[in-house]
Amino acid sequence: MPEYCPVCRIPTDDNSNLLPFRVPYPFVRASQHPCSVLIKPTNGDFLHDYNVTQDLHIGVTNSLGKVMEFDRCGLHRDRTNDWNQSLVVYKAEHQQSLDQWDYILNVIAEQDCWTPTRYNEETFNCYTFALAFVKCLKAGPISQLASSKTNFCEAFVSPRVTNACKYINLYRRLRDSGYYVNRQS
User: Fold this and answer.
1) Nearest-angstrom CA–CA distance, 74 and 71
2) Residue 118: which H helix or E strand, with range?
3) MKRN2 opposite strand protein-like C-terminal domain location, by residue (predicted)?
4) Would strands 87-91 and 74-76 be described as parallel, antiparallel, or unpaired?
5) Strand partners, 95
6) Which residues contact residue 94 at a Cβ distance below 8 angstroms, ignoring those fewer than 6 apart?
7) For 80, which of 21, 67, 117, 122 could close a Cys bridge (C-beta 3.0–4.6 Å)?
């Protein structure tokens, strides 16, 4: 904590309203979140590279925390280390879901449609793969919302990204200037 406020120059020890606090870090390592649906930037990471105009990539972890994902090169099961700064969109909580998770994920992955030739950036992509899996889970509201890309995004993706963007904005301001002043009216 600086000795003086960088804006008004009042000593910081004179104001008990300036007590340090911790902002929750929204990002996770996918490997530490088995049976989850996660998102990350298609390129780079959230803190340093992401802005809201860029595409996101979505994947699914199995019960061991290994990420399964689909992109222009086909289906991947070996790039979990690329998911060290991701957001959990959905995590299975009920034992019944956990028991079926890997089975359904493997059934979806074994379909012959997840090939590089079938991939289309707009119409048949990582989101298609993740939603196909979530629909087959038959896990109540999330599976019903997975029938619509827009509804699923509004209910599960957008709230997480909005929260992450607030954190990213704060992080970048602190990184660039060393402090942040929240001017409340």
Assistant:
1) 5
2) none
3) 20-174
4) unpaired
5) none
6) 139
7) 67
Which stretches does DSSP call E strand in the chain? 36-41, 56-61, 67-71, 74-76, 87-91
Q: Is residue 55 within 8 Å of 179, Cβ to Cβ?
A: no
Pairwise CA distance, residues 26 & 51, whole Å: 16
Quick: pLDDT tens for 72-127. Answer: 999 999 999 999 999 999 999 876 677 799 999 999 999 999 999 999 999 999 99
Question: 151 — alpha (psi -120 to 50), left (phi > 0) or beta?
Answer: alpha
For residues 95 and 101, what is the distance between their CA atoms, to the nearest angstrom?
10
67: which strand partners? 61
From residue 14, alpha-carbon distances to 5, 22, 94, 182 in Å are: 10, 21, 50, 18
**Helix (H/G/I), strand (E/B), else coil: 185:** coil
Could you tell me if 60 and 32 are in contact, meaning their C-beta atoms sit under 8 angstroms apart? no
Q: Which two tokens stand for residue 118?
A: 């079938």
End-to-end Cα spacing for the chain: 24
Distance CA 12, CA 109 (A): 56
Which two tokens mark 47?
Answer: 């803190």
